[in-house]
Design goal:
This protein is an alpha+beta fold and about 150 residues long. Helix content is about 40%, strand content about 25%. The protein has five helices and five strands. It has a five-stranded antiparallel β-sheet.
């Protein structure tokens, strides 16, 4: 696979339906693909160089940045191969959505982690459906218990 032109990979990332976001070691957005534009409603130009706080609900920011600092210092993240992180996120309209994502640490100029990349999916509809299914199951169980 070494003969694959890097432009093909960049083209795939740009057009992917899932959000692909890269932030630098300071937490500033450096890459934002079409999928991220669709999910969050911000264009790449609107978020370029801005803090990731633009999509992190305020009550979750401290926890996020604490984990970010540990991952950057240790060069390891637990949200990679098989672990998806599920969190709320903000859109350009101010709405809260549910997202799940995996994280990859990317090397910086000095060889250590310099960037964090995430592949993001909007799971708002699926989460709402799961909540509705749980609610119906609980109501059915209560009805059976009352009979």
């Amino acid at each position: 696979m070494g003969d694959l032109n890097p432009e093909v990979i960049l083209g795939m990332a740009a057009q992917a339906p899932d959000g692909m976001v890269i932030i630098d070691g300071e937490g500033l957005i450096r890459y934002w693909n079409r999928g991220a534009e669709r999910i969050f409603g911000f264009t790449a130009a609107e978020v370029d160089g801005r803090s990731l706080d633009v999509i992190i609900p305020e009550k979750h920011r401290k926890r996020h940045w604490d984990g970010f600092q540990v991952a950057m210092a240790e060069g390891v993240t637990k949200y990679g191969d098989n672990d998806l992180l599920n969190v709320p996120a903000l859109t350009a309209s101010g709405a809260t959505i549910s997202i799940e994502f995996s994280v990859m640490l990317l090397a910086g100029p000095e060889g250590g982690p310099g960037y964090v990349a995430a592949v993001i999916r909007d799971v708002t509809a699926r989460r709402a459906q799961e909540r509705e299914t749980r609610k119906r199951l609980m109501e059915a169980a209560q009805d059976r218990a009352a009979s």
